[in-house]
Design goal:
The protein has 164 residues and is of the alpha+beta class. The chain contains 3 helices and 7 strands. It is elongated and about 65 Å long. This is PH domain-containing protein.
Length: 164
């Protein structure tokens, strides 16, 4: 096996990928909701413990929540690599891959929100071809490394935040 000797011109790329813990917990929630939906539909078919109005409200509501979580999971499943003066965006579920030179970054911004004594950060990067990507520190690994890379390589494109 060949050892990787990274020189100044051949730096490793930063890999930003979804956190498995986030996808595991959201997948577990989806499975619990599906089990609840099956239980409600089985109860309606065999026992009928509740009034018809309960089944007419509960089933579509649970189905809607399941679909919203699944869409969130699938839409956020992307891999981003940054380094060598480029950003590579790969979305395996769409069979999409695009390489953006750092010079094609139109603007980028980081939002910070404090919630429950934890800091939630979201990064949005807009490119010249009208495409954009958003990642968060709670859902993606190597978030802080990407921020440092963007400050170094595309610091002028950072949106200046207004302090109220």
């Amino acid at each position: 096996m060949q050892s990787k000797n990274w020189t100044k011109s051949n730096k490793p790329m930063i890999l930003i990928k979804p956190k498995l813990s986030t996808y595991f917990s959201l997948g577990l929630v989806v499975l619990i909701l599906i089990a609840g939906l099956v239980f409600i539909l089985r109860d309606f078919a065999y026992v009928g413990s509740f009034g018809l109005w309960f089944y007419l409200i509960a089933c579509p509501l649970i189905t809607l929540v399941i679909l919203m979580i699944l869409v969130k999971l699938l839409a956020g499943y992307r891999f981003i690599a940054a380094g060598k003066d480029q950003i590579v965006v790969r979305m395996p579920l769409k069979s999409y891959q695009k390489v953006y030179p750092v010079t094609e970054i139109l603007a980028w911004d980081e939002e910070k929100i404090m919630a429950n004594k934890k800091e939630f950060k979201q990064l949005t990067v807009a490119f010249k071809d009208q495409q954009s990507i958003s990642i968060s520190n709670h859902e993606h690994e190597s978030y802080d490394q990407l921020i440092k890379y963007l400050l170094k390589k595309a610091g002028k494109q950072k949106v200046k935040s207004k302090k109220a």
